[in-house]
Amino acid sequence: MDETTDSCGRSVLNILFSYHRKTKLVSTVFLERVNHTTISQSFVNTINSYNIPFDNLIFYISDNAAYMKKAYTDILSPLIPNLLHNTCLAHSYNLVGETWVEYENFKLLDLVVKNIKASFVYSTARKRRWREHLALKSISLDNFSFDYEENTQDISVTLPPLPVKTRWNSWFKFVVWLNNYFKYFVTFFIQESRSEKNKAIKELADIFQDSHQCFYVELLIKFISFNAQR
User: Fold this and answer.
1) With 0-12 CB in 10 A as exposed, 13-18 as middle and 19+ as buried, what is 19?
2) pLDDT one-digit tens code per residue, 3-40
3) Strands annotated E in the chain
4) Where are the domains of the chain?
5) Per residue in 169-225, pLDDT tens?
6) Class of CATH domain 2-87
7) Residue 221's closest CA among 186, 182, 184, 189?
8) What SS3 class is residue 191?
9) 170 with 71: CB under 8 angstroms?
10) Is 125 exposed, middle or buried (0-12, 13-18, 19+ CB in 10 A)?
């Protein structure tokens, strides 16, 4: 069982069955509230809809979220005594990756990544100016990828792979990509700050105009780019 959010911001619970080494999505539930009670109710309703006896259940597998654990300890375990709880190994690996992102010495880089994303996501004009900025530098954009496609005639040109919290490793993929184009971001956001006054642009310009901070960010990008791919 795994809860996420869809493109409309709704809470979505995906329930999968794993049997005879085959895993399939069997139910998607939209939840108004996400807590141990609604998780347990969705679990029981799905099991009953497939007419599966409780005695046939072996593992309840989830991430490490507190409400997932509470669903097991407070409701499911007393209801199904033979049910065991395992936390998903992939989620555990992801938590290890997140310790890098949240590492004290990486905070400045994480701030840069967050502000770059914030400055691009909702600004079509900035995406266009970024393309123009790289075009002036004679940089090819043909191999770029981006999650927010625009309906433009120039569909061969796309934008950077901005990180998405629910997509594992996307933060690292963006930092690796940024390693090759960092100097262009520096000049671009310093230029943007001359006409834009929003917080993300200002913070990026302040960092990039400080030679010590800019060097430190570039050093972190190179360090992570090298080690994250090993």
Assistant:
1) exposed
2) 988 877 789 999 999 999 899 999 999 999 999 999 99
3) 2-5, 11-19, 22-31, 59-62, 84-87
4) 2-87, 100-227
5) 888 889 999 998 899 999 999 999 998 878 999 999 999 999 999 999 999 999 999
6) alpha beta
7) 182
8) helix
9) no
10) exposed
